[in-house]
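Long-time lurker, first post. I've been practising inverse folding by hand and with some scripts of my own, and I keep getting stuck on stretches where the structure tokens seem ambiguous. Below is the full token string for one chain I'm working on. Before anyone asks, I'm not after the true native sequence, just a reasonable design that respects the backbone. If someone could post their per-position residues I'd love to compare against what I wrote down in my notebook.
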């Protein structure tokens, strides 16, 4: 299953707080981190930080632009999309209503 979300933000998290949120999401999902997360910052462009965490089940990516956040959770392990969406809204300071929230079922091709 792949869950894609896009939203305006209440406040942009800094890179350490964003990484902490991604690690909490890993625990919430009950998936397994593989290696350390990739953390990127783009101060010269005015964009916020990005974190990509490879998990044994696939990946989690969270990116901030100037006023938006983009979240991509792709996991072979099933999860409750509503619980995960609520977790992300609270943890990553996303504004409701979300601009986009899409679920793509994978593995049926």
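-- Answer (accepted) --
I ran through it position by position. Result:
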């Amino acid at each position: 299953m792949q869950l894609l979300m896009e939203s305006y933000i209440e406040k942009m998290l800094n890179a350490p707080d964003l990484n902490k949120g991604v690690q909490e999401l890993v625990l919430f999902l009950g998936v397994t981190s593989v290696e350390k997360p990739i953390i990127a910052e783009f101060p010269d462009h005015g964009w916020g930080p990005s974190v990509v965490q490879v998990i044994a089940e696939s990946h989690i990516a969270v990116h901030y632009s100037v006023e938006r956040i983009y979240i991509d959770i792709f996991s072979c392990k099933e999860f409750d999309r509503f619980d995960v969406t609520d977790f992300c809204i609270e943890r990553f300071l996303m504004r409701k209503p979300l601009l986009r929230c899409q679920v793509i079922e994978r593995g049926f091709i």
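A couple of notes from the structure itself: The mean pLDDT is 93. Strands lie at 2-8, 38-40, 50-55, 58-64, 68-75, 100-104. Happy to go over any region you disagree with.
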